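Entry type: protein chain
Record version: 2
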Amino acid sequence: MPDLILASASPRRRELLVGLGLNFEIQPSTVTEPPHQGEDPGEYAAQLAKAKALSVAAGRQRGLIIGADTVVVLAGRVLGKPGDEEEAHKMLSQLSGRSHTVYTGVAVVNAATGESLVETVATKVFFRRLSQEEIAAYVASGEPLDKAGAYGIQGLGALLVERIEGCYFNVVGLPLSALDRLLRRFGFAILQKERMENKRTKYKI
């Protein structure tokens, strides 16, 4: 089977791949590029995911490189990671009682051939109305400070979300069904009988 390399330092993406029972390496990409004025956020996420994967693939002779980029968009405006607690509080106040869209671009690059595939997934997230006390308490937890949009749905941020429309894992940062589709097009099946048998033996299911 080909090597899998995750071109991201995100602990959430790492945990999702571990949860699938995959063996993989981590080689974070250093590619960064702010969105251009008027650029479609879905296209931006896809192009940046591809650029991250390609940058890592350039230094390797083989393997399937996984790149991803997540963008949070509220009323047409991209919300990045807050710079401090004050900015996190402001973002969460803006999200309160409203819906926003999370776009994740996921790319897979075959380092041996240079072939690349990319897909963008969008999920609509609805926040319940939050009190200033709740926002202050969440910010005090420290969780919002390293996350786009100032919240993490897989942690305490789940308490802020009323409902979603679309893929939950996309909001976490890696749409797993989309990743599976891309990997299968390269001949790599996550749901492979031998791997599942090994996983069952390892965890004694």
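Comment: The chain has seven helices and seven strands.
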